[in-house]
Amino acid sequence: MPEKNGIKQHGLDQAWFAALLIVLVIFLAGLLIAGERFAPAQPPKVRPVRDDVGFCWQAASMKILVDYLASQEKESFDSRGLVAAISPHDDYLYAGRLYYPLFNLIRTREAVIFGVTHGTVRNEIKGLDSLLILDDYELWPGVLKPVEISPLRSYLKAHLKADYFTVNNRAHELEHSIEALIPFLQYFNPEIKITPIMVAPMPLEKMKEIAADLSRVITAYMKENKLQPGPDIFFLISADGNHYGKDFNNLAFGEGQEAWEKALTFDQNLIASYLTGRLDDGKIAGLAGELWGQTYLDYKSSYWCGKYSIPFGLLTVQRVMERSTGRLTRGSLIRFSDTYSEGVLPLKKIGLGTTAPFSLRHWVSFCSIAYYLD
What we know:
Blueprint: H1 2-38, H2 59-72, E1 82-87, H3 92-103, E2 110-116, H4 119-124, E3 132-134, E4 139-140, E5 147-149, H5 152-159, E6 165-167, H6 169-174, H7 182-188, E7 193-199, H8 204-224, E8 233-238, E9 243-244, H9 256-275, E10 277-278, H10 281-291, H11 309-325, E11 329-338, H12 339-342, E12 363-373
Parallel strand pairs: 1-8, 2-7, 2-8, 3-6, 5-7
Antiparallel strand pairs: 1-12, 3-7, 4-5, 9-12, 10-11, 11-12
Helix pairs in contact: 2-3, 5-8, 8-11, 9-10
């Protein structure tokens, strides 16, 4: 009988321990849940500003700049059927007269922005060849408020062939060509969402290969979300033109005023021949040949900042429009100029400056071009 009582007592001890263990587990789980509930939320990852001198990041300053540019604008441009554009990424005090008339036309919900991969990036980060470079920041800086990322970016990461892209936040931190477009874009489209894409150096055939897959994915995203090119999703290509003068070791036309005039004529002829009118692959290939010195191996002979972003961006735009609308595109020049012609806008004490000089030994050409469904 005592043995039976011992067995019974042992069973009671086990039941008591099990109950205590369950209570303890529930208590600890409650603490964890409460800790998560009351723990301070982690701030979203915001891509830092690269250039706080040449570009505007204060709403009040941006309003002064835009109001001044609007007061000086004498031309009007068509926005009907506008689906894509090339924009400069030079300092606002140099290129403001080119930014304003273009971005004043754009009204859209989201934008894909094709940026440059400058030498500054490639010198620090090796292996950025024949790739698109994405990021994973949650927000980008804006002039009105932080800019949200479009769901397209995650869609690209999930559906684009893995060999065609890499994700590198550091590369985006070092690059200024995409952020340059955001203040003007957001000023006229306060709720804009963006998909930033840096274009690394690559030969034309690789561009065609990647652009074909990228256009397939973007078109599928547009179809799933019932997006129309233009008002729902817009395509921006960031690109400055040629860099001339002794400071750049680019004396293709010599030095002085006569060389400047010849260089301007050369760049304007490139735009007229390859970037305006109805676009096709032949024009894009011709432009690439001119910008790269006819061969990919000679690409360093070209001082165009957009020597990769322009051909790749246009190839992608062409294929997206063909897939989504069955139509081609045509380009119309909004404005062409250069830093030597423009000089500096006469705006003082608004938080803007210049990041480089302008003179006959150091000047940059640039253009803004609008692309419409044809």
